[in-house]
Amino acid sequence: MSLDTQITDLAKNARAAARITANLSAEQKNQALMAIAAGLEAAKTDIQAENKKDSDAAEKAGLSPAMIDRLTITDKVLTGMADGLVYLAGLNDPVGTLSDSAIRPNGLEMARMRIPLGVIGIIYESRPNVTVDAAGLCLKAGNAVILRGGSEAIHSNRILARVIQEGMADAGLPKAAVQVIDTPDREAVNLVLKQEACIDLIIPRGGEGLIRHVVAHSTIPVLKHYKGVCHAYVDDLADMDMAIKIAVNAKAQRPGVCNALETLLVHDTIAPVFLPRVAEALKEAGVTIKGCQKTCILLPGTAPATQEDWEAEYLDLVLAVKVVKDMDDAMDHIATYGSNHTEAIITGDYDRSRRFIREVDASLVIVNASTRFNDGGELGLGAEIGISTSKLHAYGPMGIKELTTTKFVAWGSGQVRS
Amino acid sequence: MSLDTQITDLAKNARAAARITANLSAEQKNQALMAIAAGLEAAKTDIQAENKKDSDAAEKAGLSPAMIDRLTITDKVLTGMADGLVYLAGLNDPVGTLSDSAIRPNGLEMARMRIPLGVIGIIYESRPNVTVDAAGLCLKAGNAVILRGGSEAIHSNRILARVIQEGMADAGLPKAAVQVIDTPDREAVNLVLKQEACIDLIIPRGGEGLIRHVVAHSTIPVLKHYKGVCHAYVDDLADMDMAIKIAVNAKAQRPGVCNALETLLVHDTIAPVFLPRVAEALKEAGVTIKGCQKTCILLPGTAPATQEDWEAEYLDLVLAVKVVKDMDDAMDHIATYGSNHTEAIITGDYDRSRRFIREVDASLVIVNASTRFNDGGELGLGAEIGISTSKLHAYGPMGIKELTTTKFVAWGSGQVRS
C-alpha cells in the first residue's frame, strides 16, 4: 500500500471514528481516560524499555543532553502522564451545551450547540508525553486525533499509542479515534496536511521551522505560535521592588519557555535608578544583559544590543534591555517587535494600566505580574494543548473548550421563508 | 514600484490602520458608517456612471444576463447598500467587553476581552455591493480591511472605495482602514495571501474554484464554504403537509443560493404516499426531480439520479430524491454527501428530533423548518459577511462577533510564578 493511500485511509478512519466520539457521553469518555491512565501504570516496564531504545539511539546520534532529557520517560514523567488523564476525567465536559438561544419573530427557536471540532492532527517533536497529553485532551473534547511525533521518539510513541488504544477498547471506544503515524518517512506529514476533507484542525508543536513548514503546506486550518518575544514595560510610576521581582521571575524562573521575558523596556525617568538595581538582581540570577545605547551608558560594561536582539527569542538567560521615552514609545516597540504572545506593564498608574490593557495586541496582556502566567493551568483553563498567537478561534492558551466549536441548531413548527 | 512591493506596503498600511481602528469608540465607528451611507447617496450619479462602464464591458464580453444583473447598481441596490450601513451603525459594538472573568488562587484577576481580529482580506467576485457591505461590517468590528473584487467590477469598486474612504476621512478615521486592490493583475491575489505578518484573516466569496485557489495558496487563516449540498430528511412520522411546504420552499423559493435544498431523503414507509404528493407540488414550482431507483418506480418517468447527483450543488430548479430505510440511513447519506452546511429533518418524533440535532454535523441543523433559514439575518446575527463550513472560529453565518476574537487580560499585584 502506498504512503498516500495509507494516510488517506487513516484520515478516513479518523473521520468515521469522530462520528462516534462526538456522541459519547461524558461518562464514557472519562472511563476511557481512566482506563488509559491505568494502562500506562501497568505497562510501565514495557514503556520504559521501548523508551530506552529511543534515548540510546539519541545518545548514539549525538543529541544534546537537554534533548535526551526531554525524550526520557522517567518514573515521574510516566506518573505525570497518568495523573494528567485522571485530572482531565474530572473536568467538565462542554459538549452538547447550548448558548445564545433566542426565539425569532417567526417562532423559530435557535441556539448554538457546543460540539467537538471533529478530527485533529497534532504534529510535534521529541517529547513523547505529548502523545498522551494531546490524545487525552482531544478525546475529552469528543474529537478523534491523528498524532505524528518525531522520529527520535518513534519506539516510545508506538507503545504509548498501543496502550492508549487498548484503554479505549476497554471502554468500548473505537481505536481509530487515536491513531499514531509511525512511519519515519517525512512525506507523511505533507500528506496529512492535505487531508482537508477528513481533518478539521492541525496543531503543530515544536520549533519555528517545523511550524512554518506546516503553515506553508497545510490546506487545513492551523493553530500555532511561531515564537514568544515577550516584553515587560517598567513605567516611571512602577513600584521598583515589584518590577525587579517580576523581571527576574519572568526571565530566569524558566528561561526556555515561550512565555519567558525576552526584552525589558524601562521608562527614561527611572532608568538611572532602576537599571543598576535590576541589573544586579538579574546578574545574581545568572542573566546576561544586552542593552540599548542608554542602557550601556547607565550600566557600563554591558554588551550593546543590535537589531537582532530586539527580534530575538533567546530562550536562555539573556535579556535585551531598552530605555524608552514613555509608554507610547514602549507600545510602539511592542507593536514592531512583539510576537502577540505575552506583554506586561508594571505601573502604579490607573490610566496607563487601562490603556496598556486595551491597546496592546497580545494573547495575554498583564498588569503588575510575571509574563510566565500565560499558561492554561495558571489562567484556569484546566489543561492546555498549546498557546495560539493566531487570532482566529483561539488567542492564548488552548484548553478543552478551544478543541470544540459551536453549530447552530433550530427548532421549528413548519416555518418557511417568504 | 513592483506589484510585490505595492501589496506589501498596502498590507503594512492596513496593519498600522488596524492599531487605530481597534481603539475607536463605538460612536466614532458609527459616525464613519453614517458618513459613508450619506456619501453613497450623494455620489449616486457618479457611482452609476462608473458602474455602467462595468456593465457595458460585461455585455460586450458576452457575460450572462444573470451575471450582468448581479453587477448592476440599480437605485434599489444603492439604497440597500446605504441602508445596510445605517443598520450596522445601530447594532451593538462587542469590542472591549469582558467575559469568563475569574480570580485565581494567587489573587491574579483574569478575563477574556473581546477585540477586533485586526486586518481582514476579502476576495470576491462580481457583486460590487460586497465592497460596501464587507467594509461596513469589518469597520463596525474595529478591523481594517483589504478588498479585492472581480476585474469585471473594477470601475464600480474604485468609486465605491473612494466614497468609503471619503466618509472615513470625514469621521476622522485613517483611509488605510479600507483599501481596494484595483490592479487587474491576478498575481495580486496570490501576493495578498502571503502577507501573513500583516493580515489576520482571509474571507473568499465566490465560486468553488476561487475558494479552492485561495485555500491552496494562503498561509493566512481562511474562513469559507466551498458549497452547500443541503438535505431535508422526511421521516415516516412527519406531518406530510408540512414536509411538502418545507421541501418546496427550501428548493424553489431561491434556488441559486447555498442554503437551498439539493437532496430530499424520504423514509421508505411513507414514500409511496408522500412522493407523488411532493412531486406534484414541486412540479408546480417548476422543479425537475432526479430520483433513486425506488423513486423512479414510485414516480414513473422520473430521470434516474447518478452518483454525481448526490454530490451536486445544483443551484437550480433540480432536486435529487432518495428513498432511505430509516433515519440512520438518512444520516449516513448526509455524512457521506453533505457539505456541513445545512441539514433538516421533518418529523413528529421526539427522540429522532433530538438525535438528528445532536448527531448531524452541519453549520445549521434544523427541525421542521426550511433549510433557507441558515442566514445571519434569519438567525438573529444582525448582518452577515458569509457562511463558514470550516469548524474553526466560526461554523455557520458570520456576523460582527465572528469578525472579533478575545485576548486574555490579567491584573496582578506583583504575582510571580514559583
Care to describe what's here?
- 2 copies of one chain form a homodimer.
- With 418 residues, the first copy, chain A, is an alpha/beta fold.
- Chain A has 2 domains: 3-224 and 395-411, 3-Layer(aba) Sandwich (Aldehyde Dehydrogenase, Chain A, domain 1); 230-378, Aldehyde Dehydrogenase, Chain A, domain 2 (3-Layer(aba) Sandwich), CATH 3.40.309.10.
- Chain A is 43% helix and 21% strand.
- Chain A has helices at 3-21, 26-42, 44-60, 65-71, 75-90, 129-140, 154-170, 187-192, 208-217, 240-252, 271-284, 293-298, 307-311, 327-337, 350-359; strands spanning 98-103, 109-116, 119-124, 144-148, 178-180, 201-205, 230-234, 261-267, 288-291, 303-304, 318-324, 342-346, 364-369, 386-388, 396-398, 404-415.
- In chain A, the strands form 4 sheets. In chain A, strands 10-9-11-8-7-12-13 form a 7-stranded parallel beta sheet, sandwiched between helices. In chain A, strands 5-4-3-6 form a 4-stranded parallel beta sheet, sandwiched between helices.
- In chain A, a hairpin with a 5-residue loop joins β1 (98-103) and β2.
- In chain A, α2 runs antiparallel to α5, α3 packs antiparallel against α4 and α3 (44-60) runs antiparallel to α7.
- At the A-B interface, β2, α10, α15, β13 and β16 of A face β2, α10, α15, β13 and β16 of B.
- β13 of chain A pairs parallel with β16 of chain B, so a sheet runs across the interface.
